[in-house]
Amino acid sequence: MSDRGGNDNDMADGDESAGETGGIRRSRLLDYAEMGEAEPPAAPVAASEPLTSDDAVARRQREFAVLLGEFRRTAVLVPTDEDDAPLVGDFGGIRWIYAFSNESALARFAIARGEGGREWPYQRLLGARLLDAAVPAAGVPCGVALDVGTEGEGVLFPPVTGIVPEDAAVDAGMDVDAAREVRG
Predict the structure, then answer these.
(1) pTM
(2) Which pLDDT value is given to residue 147?
């Protein structure tokens, strides 16, 4: 299932011609980043009646459930390191597996890290495989960070019940209703 080894997916294959770069090889990453400029999100539609906070929470939960379902069914790009392991970052006590919806999003991430000129091998995996197999295999609290570096479009899938298997969820066994009462 790996896209490693083929020139079609090695994102730093340079253009052999010097072109406008003055003798410096240009990484294909720059081409992907320029191709994938995202359109600004549509303005939210005003509701005809004001929503209560419970209504807003329920609506957002439904929207996230749809997003999670779409992620689980979609093949995403997972950059890999020199050992062919998924590229990860640790933040806030959670290990995050980086995943990208397309090569343009991966290119923006690489450029934001100042690493746009190097090769970025990746694997193409279903979101469900990341959440159900890779997250538990990490052995530490782990989630998936989708499209990191794409302003306004990144999504975090944290290691909580309903997103990852219960044995990998940091909130497994918690009394959710009691936790809500404590928060008020």
Answers:
(1) 0.70
(2) 96
